[in-house]
Design a protein that fits this description.
With 266 residues, the chain is an alpha+beta fold. It folds into 3 domains: 85 residues, no CATH class; 45 residues, no CATH class; 97 residues, Arc Repressor Mutant, subunit A (Orthogonal Bundle), CATH 1.10.10. Helix content is 17%, strand content 24%. It has 4 helices and 16 strands. Pfam families: Peptidase_S74 (PF13884).
Length: 266
């Protein structure tokens, strides 16, 4: 095979069919077509590193810190691992490892994690796992369970962010009216039959009859992701569980006052 070489100084690898070199004594090729068909473009510098060149071959694409293998695995900052499809590493002392920005004004959406071919519904396969150098800190399991290391779920509550602060009204009647039920989810029965777990909780339609402020709604339609097709919402009622808890705490305070009054006697 003939070789075409453009160089500023002597040297170079004549095994490359096409080669363009820089003017340093190292004869580093800033553009080369290798005899195996690979294409390499050096962005700057003499020595090839992960951050300064682009290489395209039949099984690998490397470019400016990005690596894509023939198995469609992609890595940012280093070669992607064999057991993952997207991998990124960050060595800088500040900034996020990942930041997604949706600039859509009228219809923005965030992140979607989708097990499109199965429904594990268990505590082994996970949607999200957060770990540090020593300890597992947070899991979101495929059955929707959320577990964290400290068992703490907080609320932004600083006084400087609030106004119109006053004592809450009695929650005695509202909390007393709640009907706590046992039930099974239809999807669990379809997947597990008689082994479906029995849950303890509230039914949104029943709660709405006495405390409509505790009930919201959400689009549960998850099988329409084609932007060319109109999205048909499937709105289902949801329950503001944390507010139910706060109502219960207020009702408990009222019960404590009544008990203390009875204990004190006339």
């Amino acid at each position: 095979m003939s070789t075409f070489v453009l160089i500023d100084v002597g040297g170079g690898d004549l095994s490359d069919p096409l080669r363009l070199e820089n003017d340093t004594s190292g004869n580093a090729a800033i553009f080369r077509v290798q005899n195996n068909g690979n294409l390499v473009v050096l962005i700057d510098g003499v020595l090839i590193t992960l951050a300064n060149h682009v290489q395209i071959s039949n099984s690998l694409i490397v470019g400016l810190g990005l690596v894509q293998t023939g198995t469609a695995s992609v890595g940012f900052g280093l070669t992607p691992p064999a057991d993952g499809k997207l991998f990124a590493t960050k060595t800088a002392s500040s900034g996020f490892i990942f930041e997604g920005v949706d600039t859509e004004v009228t219809n923005p959406f965030g992140m979607l994690l989708n097990f499109s071919a199965s429904s594990p519904d268990d505590n082994i396969r996970r949607f999200l796992e957060c770990i540090d150098a020593t300890t597992a800190r947070l899991f979101i399991d495929s059955d929707g369970d959320v577990n964290n290391h400290d068992g703490i779920y907080g609320t932004i509550s600083d006084e400087t962010l609030k106004q119109d602060i006053e004592d809450a009204a009695s929650q005695w009647d509202d909390f007393k009216a709640l009907r706590f039920r046992k039930f099974k989810f239809k999807t669990d029965v379809a997947a597990h039959g008689a082994g479906a777990q029995t849950k303890l909780g509230l039914v949104a339609q029943e709660v709405r009859a006495t405390s409509p402020g505790l009930v919201g709604s959400s689009d549960m339609r998850h099988d329409q992701r084609d932007p060319k097709k109109p999205h048909v919402p499937d709105m289902k009622l949801t329950l503001k569980q944390s507010i139910v808890f706060m109502k219960g705490m207020k009702a408990l305070q009222e019960a404590m006052l009544r008990i203390e009054a009875l204990e004190a006697g006339p």
